[in-house]
């Protein structure tokens, strides 16, 4: 039964769990992506996303609050500097969990947890957004007639090339027939 079980204890005492999540969060902020088990990744997501939300507002109080969780001044500096700028317009959902299979030793379900804005593969697809096309106003007919005249001239120039190509193809066919017939 799961009466009153609000979160996964991860088989550790409170102090060990807090230290582990702090270290994992600092590693995630530093390296932007880490490999771990699915259970730890889900616990880490709950731990780190409120900290990233706090980093959007760069105040001394928020820095001290985040430092009390992370206990790593380099991670705090990175979080409030580089990470906060990238996630500034995102309303939440800063991490992504991608399952990678099972671990050989104990068959534990493994995954990769990463900061969403730092994966270039997924971000490139979103940047190439399709432009909306709207019907423009009718343009004057003068440029259109000039374009039509230019297209007609180029077609006239290309026509003799096509005829010479057909003649060359017939000559090649005759040569191959002569070789096979002889």
Comma- or semicolon-separated keywords:
182 residues, 3-stranded antiparallel sheet, 60% helix, mainly alpha
Describe the structure.
This protein is mainly alpha-helical. Helix content is 60%, strand content 11%. It is built from six helices and three strands; from the N terminus they run αβαααββαα. It has helices at residues 14-31, 38-55, 60-70, 73-86, 120-127, 141-181, and strands at 33-37, 95-102, 109-115. A three-stranded antiparallel sheet has the order 1-3-2. A hairpin with a 6-residue loop joins strand 2 (95-102) and strand 3 (109-115).
For the CA atoms, what is the radius of gyration?
32 Å
- Global structural class: mainly alpha
Fraction in beta strands: 5-15%
Unreliable spans are none
Break the fold down into its secondary structure elements and pairings.
Blueprint: H1 14-31, E1 33-37, H2 38-55, H3 60-70, H4 73-86, E2 95-102, E3 109-115, H5 120-127, H6 141-181
Antiparallel strand pairs: 1-3, 2-3
